[in-house]
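fyi for ur records
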Amino acid sequence: MSARIRSNTRLAPEVNRILYVRNLPFSIKNEDMFEIFGKFGPIRQIRMGSKPETKGSAFVVFDDIFDAKNACDKLSGYNVMGRYLIVVYYQKDKSDKRSEVRKRMEEVQKLRMKYTTPARPDTDPLGAEAE
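which gave:
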């Protein structure tokens, strides 16, 4: 795409240079990732998940937003080693909101545990006294 066309193109607000890739084969290597995503333009960085809960996912950072858009459009659903990639734009606001909600739910759970009293064995849960 020429610079003139790019300057006139308006992108959706969620489009950015960072792609979040899921459903990667566990055996994929960094070199394979650079080979797959490098076809769409220069890559600044690839960060692959190494912990058990992040394995199979990666962040791919492109130098140019239009290269990232092209890669996202073309590689979403692409078959790599028998697995279909899920490629989306990384959205910091959404991930921050998810972690904030998770923290609040944990706080609520702690407060529930702290302030709820266990039922007494000599009473009925409906409030009637045991005979």
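Residues 124 and 130 are 6 Å apart (CA to CA). thats all i got for now
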